[in-house]
Amino acid sequence: MGPLTYSLCHKPVLGLAMFVAGACGFPPLFHEEPFPLQQASAGFVKEFEAPVSKPYSLLLVFGFPSANSIRSDEVAGTGDNSNCERDYEDIPEPQRAAVGRPIPVRVSIREKRTGAVEFDSVFNSLCTTSTAATGNERTRTVARFPLTAGKYIIEIRNMASQAGLDDVKTTVSLVSAGRNDWRQRAARRQTTRRKKTRRASAQRVFSL
Question: Among 1, 86, 105, 208, which is least packed, fewest CB within 10 Å?
Answer without folding.
Answer: 208
